[in-house]
Design a protein that fits this description.
About 30% of the residues lie in helices and about 30% in strands. The protein is α+β, with helices and mostly antiparallel strands. Strand 2 and strand 3 form a beta hairpin. The longest helix has about 35 residues. It is elongated.
Length: about 270
Amino acid sequence: MISGCGTYVPEIQEIPGADAQRFVQAIVGSIKCEIKDAVVWVINDDQTNAITYKQQKFADWLLGWGAQIQLTLQVNEQSAISPSGLYSPMKIFFLGGGANLSSSATRINVINYYYTVPELYGTGKYCTDILKENTRSNYPLGSLLIQSDLKLREWLLDVVRGLATDNISFDNTKGTIGNDKAKNALSHEVKFEIVTSGNITPMWKLVNATIFPNSPFFSTSRDRTHDLLITFGPNDPASNSLGVGTPAANLNLSSQIGISNGLHINGGLP
């Protein structure tokens, strides 16, 4: 398997032959649970504070919004063989030689999907303990997006507190030409990159020659980049709540272009 690294399409999962479908489902399921818990916590906390301190609600605007999600899974595998030799028939003459052969293969999978906040909020309950326990015990390993604190709740809470202090406004009733929603949008991106590499250099010392005097003779690496982009924005009434409005969609598109450019540069693609 190692000797073929970079000469075939990389596996998306860490263990060759493992169930790739379960691996992707684990990532998508964990992300949905993380987003749902963040939305439920922020809205419920706001409702509790409104009752306790007899104040207005500052998170109601979220119920008219949606979340556009882009998940990018990239795997880059590389291997190189660099044989070399040193020939010394006499003490005053040395002849060295070497060659290099390398290969690289990159796989990029992108998933775009959408939730409305009311769909995520549901009845105001968090992901069940059964789902979380199932994730921990049965989901395959290989991505830090699985059961990881993505800090989304912290980001949404910061925004709501900004509204409470009147430093931010998300008034969805202020319209623009061609769009009855204000230019409101929130974006949250999380990127994990894991790199593993190794090399080996055997060496033979003969009377008049040294085989493989330079290292490494064989090297291999596997680079996994998992990128999650979450864009919140007012639902587009023209699309029957099947997508975020134009301002949030534009923000999401510009972020997607930035991610794509970064993957092409970092992944070594042309």
